[in-house]
User: Fold these one by one.
Assistant:
Number 1:
Amino acid sequence: MLLMVSPHASRMPDLIGPHSITFAPPVEPRGYIDGFGNACTRIMAPAGRITITTQFMIADSGAPETIHPEAWQRRVEELPNDILVYLLGSHYCDTDRLANIAWELFGQTATGHARVQAICDFVHNHISFGYEHARATRTASEAFVERQGVCRDYAHLAVTLCRCVNIPARYCTGYLGDMGTPPPHGPMDFAAWFEVFLDDRWHCFDARNNTPRIGRILMARGRDATDVAIATTFGPCTLSGFAVFCDEAALIT
C-alpha cells in the first residue's frame, strides 16, 4: 500500500509536537518523497484487517485565505519548464473533451485571476454536491455532463477548464475543517481543491466552497486524484471503515 496521510512539507514547520502514523497489526513503514514533493508512506499490509491511524496538531493563523485579484496570467511561452506539465491532460482531467467548451465559456473573460474565478463560479453552480453522487472513476468531462459529484469532481472540472484555456492547474488534497462556517456542519471528510500558476507563484482556489476558508491543511499535490490518493493498493482491498476529524484546539501558551 502507498499512503498519503502526512502533512505536506510546506506545512511541516507548523506542526506542534510529533506527527504519528500507527498500524494495527504493527507493520514496518517506509517513507519517501514522490515526484511532486509529497510525503508518502509505503507498507506491506498483511492479509486480513488492518487499521491505519494518523494524527497531529498544527498551528494556523486562524485568518481567512487571502484573495489576489491582481494576479496576472503568463503566456504559455513564458512559463517555466517545470510548470508545463500542469497544462496537459491527465487521467481524470480529460482536456481533449472540454477544450472547445472551455474557450466558448471563458475565452472572452479577462485573463488571470478573473478568468480562474469565472471558472470557479461556473463549476460551483454547475455541479450539485452530494456524497451519494461519489464515483471513483468519474472524469472531469463526465462531471460536466452529469452535473453532480463531490469535492474531487469540482476540483477535477475546474482544473481541466483552467488547463484548456492555458492556465496551469494542479489538484490538491488535505484537511478542511468547519472553522468559521455557520452550523449545521456536515460529516467531515478529506477535502479537494486546486492551485493555479499566475504571475510568479501558485494560488489556491476552491470551486466546491468558492469562498476563502480558515485552516486549510495541505497533504498532497499532483496532476489529479491519481497522484494524491489517500491509499493506493496493489491487490484486492475493501475499505470497511473511514473517519476524518479536523477540530479547532485551544491555543496553548
Number 2:
Amino acid sequence: MLPKLSFVLGGAASGKSAFAEGLVVQTGAPKVYVATAEIYDDEMRAKVDAHLEMRGETWRTIEAPQDLTPALESVRSDEVVLLDCATMWLSNQVMAESDLVEETDRLLAAINNCAGRVVVVSNEVGMGIVPDNALARRFRDKQGKLNQRIAAEADLAVFVIAGLPTFLKGQLR
C-alpha cells in the first residue's frame, strides 16, 4: 500500500516520473496530477502535451506552478496525487524571488494537510559538477535543502537511476 507521503527523486530523464506514475496507478484510486511546469516555449508545450497524452483521460490535472495549497486542498481522501515536480515549483519560486523558507513551509503544510495520499517527484541536482554561476549554485543548494525537507517527512523515499528504483526510506506494502 502506498503511504501518505512518497518522495521519488532522480536525475533528468532518469525514469523518476514514470516510476512515480506507476506508484499512483497501482493504487487503483482516482488519480490527480498536479503540474508545476510553466510553458514558455514550443518545446515545453510539446513536452507537456506528450505527458498529457501518455497519462490519458483517467487523470484529473491541476496546473499549479507556484501556489500548491489550493490544488492540494481540492484533493479528496480517496484520491492519490502525483505532484510533478518540486524542482519546477522551486524554479518558479526562485524566478518570482519568493521567500523560499516561507514557501517551502507552505508547501509542506499543504502536503501534510492534503486529504489524499501524495507522491512528490523531484530532481537530484547535486551530483554533477559545481555550476559556473551564482544563480545555478544557489538553485542547486536550495533544491538540495528542499529535497532534504521533503525526504525527512516522507514515509517512502525512492531514488531512480536509469529507470531502476533504489529504496532509500520505507517500503511498499
